[in-house]
Amino acid sequence: EVLEVVGKLEESSPVMETINVNGFLVLPSQVESVNRLFERHQDISSNFHPKNPFLKTAYMNVLLNLTQTLRQSPQEVSKNDMADQYASLAYLTEAGFELGWLEMKLDKPLKQKCLDLEAQTAKTKAASAKAILSLDDDDIV
């Protein structure tokens, strides 16, 4: 009898170690961030009660990504990123997270972004006005 090999045996993906922090399964690299969240905001998940551990982990990952994005300077955050941050905040709040403190932090870069855009608009208007004035000069042949 002859055996033929058809395809390869695929290795299963490695199992990721997770650690339970206040009912959330997180990666070892996330433990410090999650602990810090719960130390500073004890009631953060008081109204959040899904039973599915994978769903809880997914929500926590969204929250951690949101807090990481907020560490960026306002200049690094695009308009689309800001919209995504507000959508994530609404998603987490609707799920039961208490995030009033985070909303205030999110408003700060948004306000800075608006101030930056206003300053840029003012510069553009000034440059346009200067260009129009130079076209009105009698020295143009």
Summarize the structure.
InterPro entries: MCC. This protein has 4 helices and 2 strands. The chain has about 140 residues and is mostly helical.
Folded structure, characterized:
The chain has 141 residues and is mainly alpha-helical. It has a domain at 20-101. Helix content is 57%, strand content 4%. The chain contains four helices and two strands. It has a two-stranded antiparallel ribbon. Helix 2 (53-69) packs antiparallel against helix 3 and helix 3 (79-95) runs antiparallel to helix 4. It starts with 18 loop residues before the first strand and ends in a 5-residue tail after the last helix. The relative contact order is 0.09.
Shape: elongated
The assigned structural class equals mainly alpha
Q: What letter string, H or E per element, gives the SSE order?
A: EEHHHH
Q: Helical element count?
A: 4
- In the predicted model, the low-confidence regions spanning at least 5 consecutive residues are none
Question: Strand order within the widest sheet?
Answer: 1-2
Beta-strand content estimate: under 5%
| First and last CA, distance | 96 Å
Question: How many DSSP E strands?
Answer: 2
Helix content: 55-70%
| Largest sheet data | 2 strands, antiparallel
Oligomer: single chain
Q: Compute the gyration radius: what is it?
A: 25 Å
Average pLDDT reading:
81
